[in-house]
Every structure is written in C-alpha cells, then in structure tokens.
Design a protein that fits this description.
Helices cover 0% and strands 50% of the residues. With 280 residues, the chain is mainly β. The protein has an eight-stranded parallel β-barrel. A three-stranded parallel sheet has the order 7-10-13, with no helix packed on it. It has a two-stranded parallel sheet with strand order 26-28. It is elongated. The N and C termini lie far apart (69 Å).
C-alpha cells in the first residue's frame, strides 16, 4: 500500500532511509542537525514540491520521480548511483548533482552544477538550461534536445551522444569523444572536438578558433562556420560548409567544400596531409 509524507521538515542523518512506495510532498530537508543522505536507498518514491538544503539526499535510489522541487547550492552531490528516475520542473543548484547514474530523464529543469552528469549512462535532458564545467564527462548513451548550455570542457570522453535543437556555449567540447551527432544546433567555443572519433555535425552553426583538429571520421553536413580559423588541422574529414571559412590548415585526409575560404595553409606538417579544399 502506498504511503504519503506531507508537509514535514527533516534534518536528521538518513531521516527517510530506505523509504519505499511513498509520496513525499511539500516537505523541507534542512535544519540544525545538518544530516546527510536523507533518502538514501529509497525505492519507488515520488518527491513533489520539496526543498532540499542538505548533502547527498538521493544516493542509491531506484525508481524515483522528482517534480517541482528545488535543490539549493548546499545540496552537494545530490543524486549518485541512482537509476530509473524522472526529474521534471525542478532546480538543481548544487555541485556534482548527478554522477554514476543510469536511465535518468530530466525535463524543463534549471541546472547550475559543476561536474554534472559524470560517468553516467542513459541520461536524457530536454527543454532545460544548464551551466556546468566538464558536463557529462565520461558518460554513455546521452541525449540532449532543446537545451541551452553554458560552461567549459563539456562532453569529454563521451560515447554515443546525440544533441538536437540546442545552443552550446562552451570550449574544448567533445574532446576524445566517440560517436557523437549534433543536429540543428549552435556550437560556440574554442578548440571544438579535438581528438574525437565519429563526430558528425548536421545543419549546425560553428563559431570559434581552431575547431575540429586531430579528428577521425569527422563529418559536417550543411554547416556554417563563423570566426573559425586554423580549422581541421590533422583531421580525417568530409565537410560541406555553407558560406565562408576564415582558414583551413593541413587537413590529413578527405575533402572540405565551402563557398569561400580566406586562407588554405598547407605545409610544415608533422604527418602526411592529403586533404583537399574545394571552392564551389
């Protein structure tokens, strides 16, 4: 039988430890006891319209829904080692909010959390805003759709990532990533995609210096490039660019097609470079 906890305040260590089959509504997790791990090891819980201001509230949780709730900057490392969760219409403001989790869906959320989403699998983030450093570091099977993202060093060492209809304001993004597809998005930032393997950008606006160097299996389809100089150095690339590229340097292999290129820099390479630059 399902239970309900309504309108209470908790601040003790593990106050609701291993809670099961329960709705937690209009509650506040804060107070002088400053207890950690309030909902650790919970199973099949729904948390609605709650405020969190304590560390580690949702660790090792299986089957949860967090709706219309707020985790402030004191809610450090909020959701770790958890699985099968749905987070909607909520604010996640503490550092390291999600880590080593599996099958978590977030929608219509506001997130300000350094080191968000590390070493996780099966994360979906939609219709949300996020500010994070090293976003989704070393994670797998992630989807972003209609996301506004800001922060440095995002999506590094990732595998199987899809991003659609989003705005990414970042730098050093996608380094050492594998099998990444970005569609209908804006990608702003320096040193995009270095050392990636299987990065595909479709109908994207790319902006920033020295993008897409040292890449393998790189594809660009109907993209535009703004303020992009020294692009494609030592990359294996097939690119169809609409408009202008400021400069291209020593592509390792493949072909780059654009309407115009300010400068093609060939020579003084440390490896054999046979890539071609074609002007329409």
């Amino acid at each position: 039988m399902r239970q309900e906890i309504l309108g209470r305040q908790f601040d003790e260590e593990r106050a609701l430890y291993h809670l099961q089959n329960t709705d937690v509504v209009d509650c506040r997790f804060a107070g002088p006891a400053d207890g950690e791990s309030v909902l650790k090891e919970a199973r099949n819980i729904r948390v609605e319209n709650c405020d969190f201001s304590l560390r580690y509230p949702l660790w090792h949780v299986e089957g949860f829904r967090l709706h219309d709730s707020r985790m402030d900057e004191l809610t450090r490392a909020a959701i770790w080692y958890s699985r099968d969760g749905l987070i909607t219409d909520s604010d996640l403001m503490g550092i390291k909010a999600v880590r080593e989790c599996e099958n978590i869906k977030l929608s219509n959320c506001s997130i300000d959390s350094e080191e968000f989403g590390w070493k996780s699998r099966g994360i979906t983030l939609t219709d949300s805003k996020i500010n994070a450093q090293y976003l989704f570091f070393d994670s797998r099977d992630v989807v972003l759709d209609r996301v506004q993202m800001q922060g440095k060093y995002s999506f590094q060492y990732m595998e199987n990532l899809t991003i659609r209809n989003s705005v990414l304001d970042t730098k050093d993004a996608f380094w050492h990533s594998r099998n990444v597809t970005v569609e209908n998005s804006v990608v702003k930032g320096e040193y995009l995609g270095w050392f990636s393997d299987g990065l595909t950008l479709v109908n994207c606006k790319i902006q920033g210096t020295q993008p897409l160097c040292y890449c393998k299996n790189l594809r660009l389809v109907d993209c535009t490039m703004v303020d992009t100089d020294l692009a494609f150095e030592y990359s294996d690339v097939e690119a169809a660019i609409q408009g202008h590229i400021d400069s291209v340097k020593n592509p390792r292999s493949g072909e780059i097609v654009a309407d115009s290129v300010g400068e093609v820099i060939l020579g003084d390479a440390v490896m054999e470079c046979t890539g071609k630059v074609t002007i329409r």
